[in-house]
Every structure is written in structure tokens, then in C-alpha cells.
């Protein structure tokens, strides 16, 4: 028995002409709101406001930033603008310089284990891997 596996499930269907349902809603809503503003307000106010509404509707419908629709960018902007922000200040603590009495002696410094750098550590890892492969006979 064979089953049909849906493909392209992340792509919205084109419902109304070349537009998805969301795109058509943004475009029709913007044009309808611009027409309502044009009919209700004086012409000197209605033209700039209507043009702004149409531009916003067109951006919501067509414009993408880094592959994401403009509505997500607008939502992030509004939530950032209206959310409370928490600023944390961390005071840097200055360490006191070591005096002669608190400095370790030369013999103690010689006994310290040397630290491996990234390149030394990778070289050591590589050489151990090679020795391991030789022991296995590869």
C-alpha cells in the first residue's frame, strides 16, 4: 500500500489569483482603509495618510527582509518598542597588583604545569589518533 506524502508544506497556497490569502487580506484591507480615509477625512489629510496606508499594505504584502515577511519584522519592532527593558550594569572589579610578599617564589613558578595552546592540543590529538591507528593495523 502506497501513501502520498505531502510536499512543500511550508509554502502557502495561492488562493486568489497570484496571492495567498494573507497577501490578499493585507492588500484588500489596506486599499479599503485608504478608500475609507479618503471618503471620511478632508483631502489635505486623506492623501498623505492614504498613501502611507497603501505603502504599508504593499510592504506587508510583498516586501521580505532576509527571507522573512515584513509582518514579522513589524511585529518584532512593535514588541521591542513597547516592552519594558532590563538594563544590568556590572561593575568591573579591579584586582590588586601583587606585591613582593604575595608573589610566588621562583621555585613555585617552575613547578607550575605549562598550559597547552589550541595548536599544541590539536597536534597532540592528531599524533594520538595516528598511534592508535598504527596499533590497530589500519
Task: Report what the structure shows.
This protein has 138 residues and is mostly helical. It has a domain at 21-82. Helix content is 57%, strand content 3%. Strands 1-2 form a two-stranded antiparallel sheet. A hairpin with a 2-residue loop joins β1 and β2. The longest helix is centred in the N-terminal third of the chain and has 20 residues, at 21-40. It is flat, with a radius of gyration of 33 Å. The mean pLDDT is 82.
Mean pLDDT metric: 82
Order of helix and strand elements from N to C terminus:
HHEEHHH
Note the overall shape: flat
Biggest sheet features: 2 strands, antiparallel
Q: What is the structural class?
A: mainly alpha
Pick out the low-confidence regions: none
Strand order of the largest sheet: 1-2
Helical element count?
5
Query: What share of residues is helical?
Result: 55-70%
Q: For the record, give the distance between the C-alpha atoms at the N and C termini, rounded to a whole number.
A: 46 Å
Compute the CA-based radius of gyration: 33 Å
Our estimate of the beta-strand percent is under 5%
Strand segment count: 2
Amino acid at each position: 500500500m502506497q501513501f502520498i506524502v505531502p510536499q512543500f508544506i511550508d509554502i502557502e497556497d495561492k488562493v486568489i489569483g497570484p496571492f495567498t490569502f494573507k497577501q490578499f487580506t493585507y492588500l484588500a484591507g489596506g486599499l479599503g482603509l485608504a478608500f475609507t480615509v479618503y471618503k471620511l477625512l478632508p483631502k489635505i489629510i486623506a492623501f498623505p495618510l492614504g498613501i502611507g496606508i497603501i505603502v504599508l499594505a504593499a510592504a506587508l504584502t510583498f516586501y521580505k527582509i532576509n527571507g522573512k515577511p515584513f509582518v514579522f519584522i513589524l511585529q518584532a519592532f512593535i514588541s521591542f518598542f513597547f516592552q519594558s527593558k532590563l538594563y544590568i550594569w556590572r561593575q568591573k572589579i579591579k584586582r590588586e597588583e601583587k606585591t613582593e610578599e604575595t608573589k610566588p617564589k621562583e621555585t613555585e613558578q617552575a613547578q607550575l604545569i605549562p598550559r597547552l595552546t589550541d595548536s599544541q592540543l590539536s597536534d597532540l590529538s592528531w599524533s594520538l589518533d595516528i598511534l592508535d591507528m598504527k596499533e590497530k593495523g589500519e
